[in-house]
Amino acid sequence: ALYITTYLNVTVTVSVRFRKLAGCTLFITGASRGIGKAIALKAARDGANIVIAAKTAEPHPKLPGTIYTAAQEVEAAGGRALACVVDIRDEKQVGEAVQKAVDKFGGIDILVNNASAITLTGTLETPMKKVDLMLGINMRGTYLTSKMVIPHLLKSRSPHILNLSPPLNLNPIWFKNHTAYTMAKYGMSMCVLGMAEEFRGQIAVNALWPKTAIQTAAMDMLGGEGIAKQCRTADIIADAAYIILSQPKHYTGHFLVDEDVLKEHGARDFDQYAVKPGHPLLPDFFLDEAPETLVKLMEQHGATPAFKPSSSSSPSSAKSSSSGPIESTFDLIRGNINEDVVNSTQAIYQFDLTGEHGGVWFLDLKSGSGSTGKGQPPVKADVVMTMDSADFSKMFSGQLKPTMAFMSGKLQIKGDMMLAIKLEKLMSRMNKAKL
């Protein structure tokens, strides 16, 4: 908006952003860090009231931020904050936080269901404790928090519920590698589907999902070393959420993607959101893009390492006593493992390879200075990776990112996912060595 004033016969034009969320009260779950906090800070700059409903009251050893540090940032940005210790699986805690919000701010206008848990493992590898955690936080927590907040939203002039959840894409590829996580995340989306109709004309209920991976503490833990440069910052989600939450209450029942929302409102410069502008971005889960084409699309956009193996140095042609491409790859691996790698990894990997050069191989990064071999490992593997032999060679030469291989279904992982991520450090080392 333009504000024009005259002072001492001099006309001054000042650009002022219309503060659409000024005075609104937002109840945001999981707002102590990441996407939730980014949305909170965006609204706070308008002068909004922010209820930070999250579990982290004490500093986490691996994750930054608490509800109290987030509250300080909200107030520094121009908003008012209420920090509440809330496990959204606990009906009493949610109810108490909602009542505190109403007592302090006079009501609640917007609910952002952001809190989420993720474990990307298959049915046999996912402990029921993890299944219960994901279903309890993602699905039940979203439903419970919505149920508690809705009576207050019905009194608001601009009521909104925004769930950070994906479109309901029933392509089996999004289920087969992590059924429990998909069920839990889609539970949040089903809340949108149902509640949008149930409260049509009374409350706007929508879902928002990122087109690309977003850099958060959780992504850093899941994606391993080097993942950040393939991500956008949480600011893109915050900007898209701001647009959605500024709409009238009849704008409801939509499953929205951040980039599409911003494009529809005139945005053209998306490099501003990139952690590393110009670097190829990692597409997010669950979107309509055929998963099996993701790797090809990434390669078309330059998603290959700075070093691309030449014919004289690629695994398929490297000279070794065994001449086969898999044997050659393991010869190269042997040359890049030592006690330091073993000490920092502490895991045994088994590779069940299919295709032209199928077979079972192992990589011991748990004892001595490390070892590799054909056949079953001497002791039970911590991680079992199943993939085509050709994709295995591409992965270790840097031509296929492990994350992309997993997302597109080319790589199946059983066992400890965090140890699987550690293996990427060895691959990165091999690429730097220009194998």
TrEMBL record:
Pfam families: adh_short (PF00106), SCP2 (PF02036). Keywords: Mitochondrion, NADP, Oxidoreductase, Peroxisome. The keyword tRNA-binding does not apply. It comes from the Eukaryota. Residues 308-323 have a biased composition (Low complexity). It is found in: Mitochondrion; Peroxisome. The keyword NADP applies. Residues 338-427 form the SCP2 domain. Residues 304-325 are annotated as: Disordered. Signal peptide: none annotated. GO terms for cellular component: mitochondrion; peroxisome. One of its GO terms (molecular function) is oxidoreductase activity. NCBIfam families: PRK08278.1 (NF006133). Belongs to the short-chain dehydrogenases/reductases (SDR) family. This is Hydroxysteroid dehydrogenase-like protein 2. The lineage of its organism: Eukaryota, Metazoa, Chordata, Craniata, Vertebrata. The gene is HSDL2.
